[in-house]
From TrEMBL:
Domain of life where this protein originates: Bacteria
Family named by the database record: Belongs to the FemABX family.
Keywords: Acyltransferase, Cell shape, Cell wall biogenesis/degradation, Peptidoglycan synthesis, Transferase
InterPro entries associated with the record: Acyl_CoA_acyltransferase, FEMABX, PG_Glycine_Bridge_Synth
Keyword Cell wall biogenesis/degradation in record: yes
Pfam family, one: FemAB
Gene Ontology BP term (one): peptidoglycan biosynthetic process
Protein name: Peptidoglycan bridge formation glycyltransferase FemA/FemB family protein
Length: 373
């Protein structure tokens, strides 16, 4: 099959997304509007009959003082990753991006390589010989993922070096936690919660915690909790304008693309979170909470309301996003892994992000620049 690549319109891109069960929210045309420091372009792959058979959102980040760009396709592009002749998909993309001034291309194939059930993760945490999730025997693995990695290396692509706390590095997480919904009733999903989760949900209900949907006017309330969370957990918060821009861009594309949930108790908001919806995939995106009144368990109540709503929407998966690969008790992210897996989530490993240096000197210079920021 002969493939050609060219830029496509927003309407063409959205029509392709709508023809799929789901794609990552990072591959929507609207995501380019969330990232004002990047230039965005929608690309389309066409077969010999002129049908759009693949699409990708590419973000172009300029190198300081030089009119050259890092081209980034987060969790994309959306193509047939297991097709014979992968070169026919990727070589036209590299040629197009080189002509656009890209010195390097980074992409994240949305291909899951391995999964671990909640029971397998719990056993791995308890196993003194398992220091990382990768040390544990997976519950499921796809041999095609290894074949894909081998093909990419043969084509000159390089797998991005993992961060020490994988899942929370620059770029997109390689390890995520996902609760499967497809073919399961809400009662079955509830049965997949561990005992602590079920106990905490009941405790929140008894204490009078109420979880409500918010709107764009409630983003400042979310943001105050988010800033407190950033200070407590030692990360640099995004500005409020980022979330306002995200809400506007996604809502203009689909009024129910992004939701905000707020957990109230005695007139005070104790926790808040954003949720993103694309087709049958629902993501828990950003969460925030105060250290006050933790005993009423607002986070469990809020997440269960979000999971309930996602199930009602017909979601096939509720995605908790990034988790750490480290299983060491000394790692402060292990508690977050336990929280997400306790909701019945499976740990999933993607094939990771891959780089193709089109100009090796500039690629190294950009890596050095980013490491000094």
């Amino acid at each position: 099959m002969t493939l050609t690549l060219r830029p496509v319109s927003r309407a063409e891109h959205l029509a392709f997304v709508g023809s799929r069960p789901s794609v990552s929210h990072l591959q929507l045309p609207s995501w380019g509007e969330v990232k004002p420091d990047w230039r965005a372009e929608s690309l389309g792959w066409f077969d010999g009959d002129g049908r759009l058979v693949g699409a990708g959102l590419v973000l172009l980040r300029p190198l300081p003082k030089v009119k050259r760009y890092l081209a980034y396709l987060p969790e994309g592009p959306v193509i047939d990753w297991h097709a014979d002749g992968l070169e026919r998909w990727l070589e036209p993309m590299l040629a197009h991006l080189k002509a656009r001034g890209a010195f390097s291309v980074k992409m994240g194939p949305p291909v899951v390589a391995r999964r671990w059930s909640p029971e397998a993760v719990k056993a791995a945490i308890a196993d003194p010989a398992a220091h990382r999730l990768r040390d544990a025997e997976p519950t499921w693995q796809d041999p095609r993922a290894q074949a894909l990695a081998d093909r990419l290396r043969a084509m000159g692509w390089r797998q991005s070096e993992p961060d020490a706390e994988e899942g929370f590095a620059a770029g997109q997480p390689r390890y995520v936690c996902q609760v499967p919904f497809a073919g399961r009733s809400l009662e079955e999903v509830h049965g997949g919660l561990n005992q602590q989760w079920r106990r905490n949900i009941k405790k929140a209900e008894k204490a009078g915690v109420k979880v409500m949907r918010g709107g764009v006017d409630d983003l400042p309330v979310f943001y105050e909790l988010y800033r407190e969370t950033a200070e407590r957990d030692r990360f640099i918060p995004r500005p409020l304008a980022y979330f306002e821009r995200m809400w506007t861009a996604l809502a203009n594309e689909d009024p129910d693309r992004m939701r905000l949930y707020l957990a109230h108790h005695d007139g005070e908001v104790l926790a808040a979170a954003t949720m993103l919806i694309v087709g049958s995939h629902v993501w828990y995106s950003y969460g925030a909470s105060t250290a006050r009144k933790r005993e009423v368990q607002p986070n469990n109540a809020m997440q269960w309301r979000m999971m309930t709503d996602a199930h009602e929407l017909g979601a096939h998966v509720y995605d908790f996003r990034g988790i750490t690969d480290t299983l060491e008790e000394s790692n402060h992210l292990l508690g977050l892994l336990r929280f997400k897996v306790g909701a019945g989530g499976e740990a999933a490993e993607y094939v990771g992000e891959w780089d193709f240096p089109l100009n090796r000197m500039l690629h190294k210079a950009f890596d050095l620049y980013m490491s000094r920021r």
